[in-house]
Amino acid sequence: MRTRAAILLLPCLAATALSTDGRADDVLLESATLGETGLMGGWAIVSFQFLGGRFFVEEPTAVTAIGGHMDGGGLLFGVIVRLEGPEALPVGSPFIDEEVVLVKTFAPPRPSADFLVETDEVTLEPGHYAIVYGAGLYGTDGSGSATHRGQRDLVGASYISRVDNRWRDAATLSIRFVVLGKPPCLADIDGDEEVGFPDLLILLAQWGTCPPLCFGDIDGDGVVDFDDLLLLLGSWGPCDEPAAREVGI
């Protein structure tokens, strides 16, 4: 899949969440409404304080962008970690490799703005997750803040923080974190956003029992067979685009 690093600035009013290639994406997490922009300061995001928000994924979903309403200088990181349950915390100190499913570094805007950073399209399986923002890891040395002025938590908002080397639940913070995704296009074997003859040729070349890694095994049963062929033919053409959903009011 393509690696994309563009930052998208979102309008202050009911904006449709769009990736840079024009497709509308699903909202996996939107923790708070958008308040006043163009500010500096808020809840600190630094090397000794990480802030995050929990979310739940009901079906396999490819993450396309992360972001929110922040300001800062230098580089920060955004990490998506797998959680054991709806009220769980990361188990690492601060993370272990097994729980980290996505890492993205970015330079937040200054003054504050509502923004998205596009990511590699990592697929999340159904389950509980958290997006965590911080500094001091993954080559980042910046500092930032999550603005909260004029914002209100949306239903289901659930925050976590890491302070003094300890993970903990965070109270109502009214900070805005956003994660976007879309259904994965599993039959797009070559990653060009379209299911076509190149994908068919790869599938046919891998026909039969799979070695440990077999891209033609679309249904993941260990064999490339007619079931995978039918899935590929049923997905023929450009990868499906989910319906647009609105972010923020």
- From the spread of the alpha carbons, the general shape counts as elongated
Q: How many β strands by DSSP? A: 20
**End-to-end span in angstroms?**
32 Å
CATH topology group of the largest domain = Jelly Rolls
Helix content: under 10%
Structure report:
The chain is mostly beta strands and 249 residues long. It folds into two domains: 7-183, Jelly Rolls, CATH 2.60.120; 194-238, Type 1 dockerin domain. It is 7% helix and 39% strand. The strands form five sheets. Strands 1, 3, 4, 6, 9, 10, 12 and 15 form an eight-stranded antiparallel sheet that branches. Strand 13 (159-163) and strand 14 (166-170) form a beta hairpin. Helix 1 runs antiparallel to helix 2. The longest helix is centred in the last third of the chain and has 9 residues, at 197-205.
Entry keywords:
249 residues; mainly beta; 20 strands
SSE map:
Layout: E1 7-9, E2 15-16, E3 26-30, E4 43-45, E5 49-57, E6 61-73, E7 76-83, E8 100-106, E9 113-118, E10 123-124, E11 127-134, E12 143-146, E13 159-163, E14 166-170, E15 177-182, E16 194-195, H1 197-205, E17 208-209, E18 223-224, H2 226-234, E19 237-238, E20 246-247
Antiparallel strand pairs: 1-9, 2-20, 3-15, 4-12, 5-11, 5-13, 6-9, 6-10, 6-12, 6-15, 7-8, 7-11, 13-14, 16-19, 17-18
Helix pairs in contact: 1-2
